[in-house]
Structures are given as C-alpha cells and as structure tokens.
Amino acid sequence: MKVIMTGGGTGGHIYPAIAIADKIKRKHPEAEILFVGTERGMEKDLVPKNGYEIRFITVSGFNRKKLWKNLRTAADLAIGYRQASRIIEEFRPDLVIGTGGYVCGPVVRAAQKKGIRSYIHEQNAYPGLANKLLEKYADKVFVSFSESKKYFKNQDKLIITGNPIRKSFIICSMNNSREKMGIKATEFVILCFGGSLGSEKINSTMLHVIKAINGMPEIRLFFITGKYYYQKVCDTIEKADIVLNENINIIEYADNMHEYLSAADLVISRAGALTVSEITACGKASILIPSPNVTGNHQYYNAKVVADKGGAIIIEEKDLSDESLLGIILRLKNNKEALNCMSAASAKVGKIDSVDMIYDNLGI
Predict the structure, then answer these.
(1) Any bridge partners for residue 313, and if so which?
(2) CB half-sphere exposure, 58, CA atoms < 13 A
C-alpha cells in the first residue's frame, strides 16, 4: 500500500499528518508513505526528523492584502499542480490525505483528477480557505470541532474526529514526567509557549510574570520562547538585571513537549488547533491568547470551544497586560478547586481517539 500525506507551513498542519502516518505504519508496516510539502515550511525539517521521505512542490498562499501578488500565486499553483501530478504518476499512491495549508490544493486536486481516493482534515473550528475549496474533491472531510461543520456544503462527507495527536501525548503521565524532570509533586507548574514559531507579545508580557514569581517557593515556570525569540528574551532579562532562580526555566525549543505538557498544572499559550487539542487531550487548565494575525481569527474560535466548556480562560491580545495575566495565574495557583474544575472540563473537550477514527474511515 502507498499513501501520500500532504500538509505544511506550521507544526499545526504537519504533526497531525505525522500522527496519521504513524498510525498507518503501525497497522501496515509494509506501507510506503511519502510526504509532499514546500521547502519554505517547517515540514522540510520535521518530516525527515520523524522518519519519512518528503518531496517538494512550488506553491504559495493567497495574499488578501496585496491582491496583485496573487498573479504570482496563480503561476505557482499551475507549476505546483504539474509537479504534484508528476509525483503522483511516479509514486502511484492508493490514497492521498491532506492536513491543511496551501500545499494541499494542487496535490489533492491532482489525485482526484486521476481517480485516487482523497481525504482532507481540518484542524480549526473556523476552516481554512484551502480546505473549503478542496471539499468538493475529497471523498471524506475530517473535522476537529463540530462547530466547523456549518462552513462546509456537503454534510454527508463530514466526520467529526477531533485532531490527531501523537501517541506520546496520550500515554504520558504527570507523575512520570515530573519525576523525570525533577519536579516535586507539591509544586505548581506553569508551562508557557507561543506555538511552533513563538510569540513576541506573549514573551514580552511574561517578563512581568517572571519578575513576580522569580524565587517564589512551590512554583515552577517553564517558558518556551521559540528559537527566533530566545536570545531576545535572554537579553531582555539580563538588561532588566533579573537574576533567575532555579524555579524559572527559559527554554529555546522543546522536542519533548508531551513531557512538559503532562507535568504542568497550568498552560499559557496561543490557540492553534493542534495546541488546543494537545492541551485538552492531556486535560490541562489553560490561559489561551489567540493570535490576531491569522485568517478568519480562527484561533479565537478554537479557544472559545474550550472556554465555553469551562476548560480555559481567553485573553484576547488587545486585552493582554502584565497585570491581567499575572492576576489570573496567581488566582488559579491559590484556588485548587477552580483549577481542578478547569482541568476536568478541558479533559471532557479533549479527544484521544482521533487518529483511530480517521484510520477507520480510510477504508484500508
């Protein structure tokens, strides 16, 4: 059996594809799986790192602000379609699965044109343009949130699966992670990160939090800045004459995010679809700060799904301040009952069988 996985740009599109590929490999060790992406996206590094072959096509996204640039987008789309067709002819897949990002367009379209079964997965509560356009070419459309169903035309194709997450997030336990990381059971652990690319706004606001809790007993912060912002954060802390105590951990990037997440009592992060799915699968209370710089404000809608059930507190970036963030952190630290209620609500939103549901609907 041969399968093409396509999706790219950010980890939110790539890691679900890897989770599906891993599931297929566990069920069919002989399966040949090829990823198709672009050289500009994170898939260039993440896919080979996870043991899969990848080939690249030329394609670019739609520019809503500078419409004249879409002449280049149209030209790239034509080139990408020809390249995708060539890859499909050479590899001869039995099925194609797209997990979002503009790279999916030419690959899924070329597969459908050749009569190859095609599937797409939408991670966000508010669907991306690519998947809404690809709906008519897909045999089935997997969606993560029931709230996104209304944006698709053919309801018969839709299957609510949740977001496929890697197995490590499901089997990891708080006790084991804390023991491995040297964290006491009595410590209140905060994990803060801004998604795979990091967030300058969150990073700057966290400086006030660091000043307030630096050296505070029974509280531990793991602050993952993102590679792009790491040095800037370190320089800012140094210029502010802050001498970090052992309870403050500034980290550039984490490959073992599942361990940090399972060890945490409270998570502060953006609200990308995969991030939200991983947080809720682990049953963690969270403060979600949706990025305002995304199409359709989709991170806000992802966060709202959890907040409406009581599992998260939303702070929109325009309302984010030093005082507001620190106030919520300390309130939850000192109110174990409220924190536990949020964790339980988060766990009810989380789905841990998403990848199994997707696999069961692939007909293989």
Answers:
(1) 287
(2) 9
Alpha-carbon gap, residue 25 to 2, rounded angstroms: 11
Whether 2-160 and 168-349 share one fold: the answer is yes
**Whole-structure pTM value:** 0.87
CA distance 289 to 268: 8
CB atoms within 10 A of CB 53: 11
Query: Is 168-349 CATH 1.10.10.60?
Result: no
pLDDT of residue 112: 95
Domain 2-160 has CATH 3.40.50.2000: yes
Local structure of residue 219 (DSSP, 8 states): E
Tokens of 216: 């505070």
Q: Which pair of tokens denotes residue 126? A: 């508010």
CB 282 within 8 A of CB 306: no
Q: CB-side exposure of 291: number of CA atoms within 13 Å?
A: 20
β-pair type (95-98, 140-143)? unpaired
Which of 40-44, 108-112, 141-145, 187-191 has the least mean pLDDT?
40-44
Q: What are the extents of the domains in the chain?
A: 2-160, 168-349
